[in-house]
Structure prediction request, 173 residues.
Amino acid sequence: MTRRVVETAAVLAVFGMLAGCSGSDGKKAYDVPTKLCGVTVDPSLVLPFLPSGEKVRVRGADPVPSRRLCQMDIDGKWALMANQEWWAKDVSIATVVGANPQLVSAKTSTDGALVYGGNGAVERVESCKNPSHPRWVLYTSLRVRASSLGDAYAMKKLATAYSRAVAKTHACS
Prediction:
């Protein structure tokens, strides 16, 4: 009986290695862009949230003056969204978070400006002032498609870096 268990385990281990080598091998054959819609972000902060694939494409849109949307696609499927949205000053971060479904079991930073989870984040960009939006507050948001790539600590780092980078752009001047 023990020999049979060992043989079965060995066969399963070999099968697992072969399955891992065929088809999708988990390689990221693309270079992670250094910019998300014109905002410089360290690619090493973005990489953990991207799936394997061959081609990357970043596209942005400004559907209304108060919103900047950015989407990173891998092999034609969205993988990461990084957005900037102006909200009225009296709107709470909880309302903004409510528009981001991947933040169901999220954590809040001690200052209350950042809410993050493994697959998304919303942050109020406190230092951002713009004469075109005098009664508004800028929020950044991130969304990751693949729930298997979730990592709350890595998301907190990415969200903080992204928001700081946005604060240095023309959106905040």
Summary: Residues 2-21 form the longest helix (20 residues).
